[in-house]
# Entry
Amino acid sequence: MADPDEDDAEEIIYHGTSVTIANKIFAAKRFDERETFFASVKDLAFYFADRTIKKSGRTGITAILKIGLYRSDLNNWRTSRLVQSRPFDEGDAGELRGKTQLIFNGEAIRFLNAYSFKDDWQVEVR
# Structure
């Protein structure tokens, strides 16, 4: 039997980037409607934030956006194939093995922008 509180359960996801970009997204309270990567744990999001800054060839401060949404919404988007959970494999860096990234397509981002708990969004800097 399904748990009646499951529909109200909150899921937290994290997006790692630079503090400049995180602050822009936070101020707008929306992501661009394109494929975007998230993590379900902070450490993985900070790993991607570090990697994003290094790939850009710039120096900067890493940050993550902490986003809350209903678990039932995330599950529905997964079922509809708008969000993919993709594990890392032996071709990826060792510290990624055993972890999973969440890949939101543009339509999933549109829903995230509409249905996430925007008053609870947070930027965390490391």
